[in-house]
Design a protein that fits this description.
The protein is α+β, with helices and mostly antiparallel strands and 428 residues long. The protein is 32% helix and 25% strand.
């Protein structure tokens, strides 16, 4: 199958590399891609959120299957436009992608499907926000209702800061913000592939949202991740399939907007059991990098079966033993205003190291040299027989790469290795 991947981040680079290994995929191209992806497959400079342009590209290159990476094309209805001309697409319709695009909609679906989640109030005035903050108490959680690329959330004990964030969201055109109770316990990301009726879970991962070590500083799109999570309850994945994924998939089908694609459940393992923090309607970045590094089964076949509604034909997934870990290397200033155009050295040396993949995000090639062109620049991913070894390999590769102002966290998976993650005794 001639396959097109939409997007330009490290997640898409990981998807491209995994699809290339699948014997059923005859060719892969990516739009718009980045410097690293362009070294692996043909890239085309097309706006991924423009349904007509994407459709035209597919027709021109006789594309047979499309995999959508980021959230923006989904919300823009690209999947719908391609399905309308009979193309199989991995990614939900715009109506189903509202699970990510609207926090209020997701809460409504979860309530209807009886899915365990944080109590929440949808607020449209600052007075509403103030009373919700007082109702739930500190730490305060305030979220943009709409898409914010993982950065529209504030968690703080400072009531004034929570009010300021809400006021900024309301002023920026979001007519609503969601105020939630704070969920204690470690966070887990679980990807579930659905064909609208059934789900196939992947292995859980944990990502690191804050920009600095020890979970300090502002939220980002994610600074690193690892998988598997040896500290989670043994029945966690089945528990989430039974209590979260299947009820949501059934509820979406009932509403006439079946969810076909990747349901990403952000979970908190609280003392009272598993609670959903939020849903995304696509692969998460950087968790994809580690989950796909461990997947042995052909990725293209799994995603294609989801796209054509035939997950009942999917054999059980096979996984590598051992662990995978990724470290995100970011540009100076990230997650605020970033500097672009810094020359990156050492990528080839790192990529040549055994069991290491350097996946590109914010990079471009200028006069034959790779330079920074975004916030998150590279995801350096390593696999090994143990988490400790995967960590050593990833950081050894990180040390060989440099550019002016580069920043990364030095503590990815450290708390897991040191046995510092505790999960409430109760689960289920």
């Amino acid at each position: 199958m001639r396959t097109l991947v939409l997007g330009s981040g490290a997640r898409e680079h990981a998807l491209v590399r995994a699809l290339l290994k699948d014997p059923s995929i005859t060719s892969v191209m990516c739009a718009p891609g980045n410097a690293g992806i362009a070294a692996d497959v043909p890239t085309v400079d097309v706006t991924p959120t423009d349904p007509a342009a994407v459709r035209e590209l597919c027709s021109e290159h006789r594309i047979e299957f499309v995999v959508i990476g980021p959230e923006a094309p989904l919300a823009a209805g690209v999947a719908d436009a391609l399905r309308a001309v009979g193309l199989p697409v991995f990614g939900p319709s715009a109506a189903a992608a509202r699970l990510e695009a609207s926090k209020a909609f997701a809460k409504d679906v979860m309530t209807a499907a009886d899915v365990p989640t944080a109590q929440a109030r949808v607020c449209s005035t600052i007075d509403d926000v103030a009373s919700a903050l007082d109702e739930f108490g500190a730490p305060h959680v305030v979220k943009d209702d709409g898409l914010a690329a993982g950065k529209g959330v504030i968690v703080t004990v400072d009531r004034a800061a929570a009010l300021d964030h809400a006021a900024a969201c309301l002023a920026a055109g979001e007519r609503r913000v969601v105020v939630e109770e704070y969920l204690d316990g470690p966070e887990v990301s679980l990807f579930l592939v659905s064909d609208g009726e059934r789900v196939v879970p992947l292995e859980p991962a944990q990502d690191f949202k804050r920009v600095f070590d020890d979970d300090q500083g502002p939220n980002t799109g994610g600074m690193g991740a690892y998988s598997p999570l040896d500290w989670t309850p043994l029945d966690l994945v089945q528990d989430v399939v039974d209590t979260v994924a299947m009820p949501v998939i059934t509820e979406m089908r009932k509403r006439g907007t079946p969810f076909q694609g990747l349901l990403y459940a952000g979970l908190a393992l609280t003392a009272r059991g598993v609670r959903v923090i939020e849903f995304n309607a696509r692969f998460g970045d950087p968790e994809t990098q580690v989950v796909l590094a461990r997947l042995k089964s052909p990725l293209g076949q799994l995603l294609y079966r989801s796209a054509i509604g035939r997950l009942d034909e999917q054999p059980p997934l096979q996984w590598r033993t051992g662990a995978a870990l990724t470290v995100v290397m970011a540009a100076a200033g990230y997650p605020g205003d970033v500097r672009s155009g810094d020359i990156i050295s050492g990528i080839a040396e790192a990529d040549a190291m055994a069991h290491v993949d350097v996946l590109h995000a914010g990079t471009k090639r200028v006069n034959g040299t790779i330079v920074t062109s975004g916030g998150r620049v590279l995801s350096v991913t390593a696999i090994a027989d143990s988490l400790e070894q995967a960590r050593e390999r990833a950081y050894a590769a990180v040390r060989t790469i440099s550019w002016s102002g580069e920043q990364h966290r030095s503590d990815i998976a450290l708390s897991a290795l040191e046995g510092r993650i505790t999960v409430g005794d109760h689960h289920g």
